[in-house]
Amino acid sequence: MCSMAYTRKSSGSKSCALGSPKCSNIDMSLRRMRWVLAMILALGLTMPGYEAAGQSHADIDTYMVLLEGPPIVIYKGDIPGLRGTAKYFTNSWKKHHRRAHVKDLVSKYKTHLIQKHDALLKDLFQEKSCTKLYSFTHILNGAAVRLTSQQADVLAKHPSVVHVQKSFKVQTTTVHTPEYLGLPTGIWSKMGGALGAGEDIVIGIVDTGIDPTHPSFSTVGQKPYVPLSKYRGTCEVAKEFPAGSCNGKLIGAQHFSAAASQDGAFNASLHFASPLDGDGHGSHVASTAAGNYGVPVILNNVTYGKASGMAPRARIAVYKALYRLIGGFIPDVIAACDKAVADGVDILSLSLGPNSPPGNSTSTFLNILDLALLNAVKANVLVVQAAGNGGPYPKTVTSFSPWVLSVAAGVDDRTYPNVITLGDKSVLKGTGLAPATKGEVLYPLILAKDATEGQGNPGFAPSDCQEPSIFQKALVTGKLLICTYGFNYIFGGSTLQQLVKTVEAVGAAGVVLVVESDGSGSKFDPVPLRIPAIALLSFADSATFLGYYEANTKRGQNGKALSFGATAKLGDGQVTVYTGQAQQVALFSSRGPDVRDFNFNDADVLKPNVMGPGFLIWGAWTPIAIDNAAYQGEHFAMISGTSMATPHVAGLSALLKAKYPAWSPAALSSAMVTTADVLDQQGRPIQSQQLSGGPTPLLQDATPFDMGGGALNINAAINPGLIFEAVYLDYIKFLCSANMSTPGEVLAATKTACPQAPGIPADLNTPSITFANLVGTKTVSRTVTNVMAAGETYTVTWTNPADVVLTASPTSFAIGTGLQNTQTVGFTLRATATSQTASFGRIIFKGSLGHTVHIPVSIGIKEP
């Protein structure tokens, strides 16, 4: 008998249904193929290792099981006894879900799928126990089940089973941004201001939960939120997540922990069996996407400005599937995505993606997460996904598929510089979000090693300044303490928070951090401090400073300091400086090219797609978070990563969706990609940060492999002129195209047959053209649709990639208004030489009414 374990009522029946599954007439070999399920998450700047889920019992693990038969979003209403009205499914079931007969059909088909799952398990394992964690019904037809390896082998051979794969463990990967992006005087002003921007759009966030008490999600003083009939989600109630936590702004909140619990990693007292955020990351993401407008950001009694989400009036639906310290598990993540689509979210924000995938799979596009997201797009949900934090190295993008909007992280123009003025009147520049020393007086300097007695804990170096007990307080009181930011801060247990406690305990006037190499300086992550402090992150500046100190310190023959003559004062590092420059691609942001398989062969798909702000982003935090010492007890945090860039784009997408509710996910993505900025405010190319060997990154012109179409400009995206449309069947054709996947693999994965002549991958109507290996001459076409209110005449121009001759036909055309008015343009690309590196060009559609549409061209040319 197969037992059932659930943390969600929506997961299905709590007992195994009777009956036996029906065999499909598809070839048996197709049902036994191996698909990739090895997906893990990337939060902020974290670079987790790739790790299989541990076994909680001998030889028992969680397995993902995909079954024959379509999930709800691609069901055609054609099963006997469940016929319903097929057209509502072949078109858009989501559009018609409120109709009573459609709701009834969805409910019946969902029950049918769950019964099939349960019957299969009961039929195979009547005498041996197993535990079903979830039934997936909306974007996948399958289940997550606890099995022995022998049971998994038996299940994999059953004719109704498409694929069985062991689960893997997963981990998690602002104030100025609205002004920097021009929202208040731009798109917000067209939507009733900040108090109306994003009205009635639901952003689903799969993350670590939310702090419902945070002011970023409060409805106090807000225009009342009316119920939304299109959203069908629920709000869980728990001791730490009481009734009323969902207030209209927060429209839904659910948690998914069955897989984590079965693995033995979940502890309800530590991780909370509720949507409450015990980590901080989920609250940060939610506030960035749709937090309230004008919430004061206060740390250490200092106000750093007022925070706002990108779509301040949008609704937030939380799907907690990740947990502090342990991360999460793939079945929980898939279950969260499945439920979000079933609930009716408009945008799905995912700061997640595969990392270090196995090499025993075929197509990256047929992994289980991307298949689920394909069906989410089929349900008219725009999926926004983090590109990953593996930069600046190539082929590190962890968001693969063309149906997903993949986000790179940019560095905006907000900085927190600081200076130290030495007694010889020289000034050195540094960083540190910290107050100035009191008054205009100079304070004596003292090096940590000159003020310590003994070694203390062997796990720390005295220069780390982590142990107040080893300092001679009489020597340090009233002086600026000099400490070293090095190995133990980056890889060990030393923290800036303990440094602050040391400085306060010994009565120092402040602290100066120096580095032993430029490499360690590049790893410094500035956080707000309550004491005067500065970090000199350049090795040259650190050496100059220490040289000044030694020149003014008298030492005995044994090297012991006898007197101290060096003095200095610190500036105010809490003053924000805006440089006015356009975004740079952040050093950590993952780079293309995209890969078509887990052997890392290049794909004819451009990734990332667009760039959003992702460096030093202020957002909501939960004071109960314990895994980031810098912000323990705080309500706001400033963190970095493509995980931070993703909710920026998700929130901006919500504004576009509110303006154009009928637009498809592809149309929304196209509008943002084709109007993105590729030049800064002075007309110079956007720069990409690269490794330099020092604390300051090397800058070079950004390529499409760095930033996709460019830095998102939502004020241009709201008036795009033309869009590049693609629908579900276009993506099926892409999957079936040359050398991508076999027709059998596509049919088994998507329940949709390949067309007779699927063409090549580059035929997909994306707002880009990419050839991983252009041999000879290739011709592709792109079809544009005029989505504006008036007809327009366009001229097509382009810049050739190196060693490529590009031509277009026609080079000008007139197009009418409306979705039925389209124009197809053919592009011929001819390689003139081979090259070991990719080259890049750009195609521009210039409209007579002022619209400019640009798409990047990325070409690799190798030997035939």
UniProtKB/TrEMBL annotation:
GO cellular component: a single term: extracellular region
Subcellular location: Secreted
PROSITE patterns: SUBTILASE, SUBTILASE_ASP, SUBTILASE_HIS, SUBTILASE_SER
Keyword terms, alphabetized: Glycoprotein, Hydrolase, Protease, Serine protease
Gene Ontology MF: a single term: serine-type endopeptidase activity
Active site (record annotation): D207 (charge relay system), H281 (charge relay system), S643 (charge relay system)
Domain Subtilisin-like protease fibronectin type-III: 763-859
GO biological process: proteolysis
Highest rank taxon of the organism: Eukaryota
Keyword Nucleus: no
Record domain Inhibitor I9: where: 108-172
Domain Peptidase S8/S53: 198-679
Keyword Hydrolase carried by entry: yes
Family membership noted in the UniProt record: Belongs to the peptidase S8 family.
Protein's name in the database: Peptidase S8/S53 domain-containing protein
Originating species: Physcomitrium patens
Name of the coding gene: LOC112289705
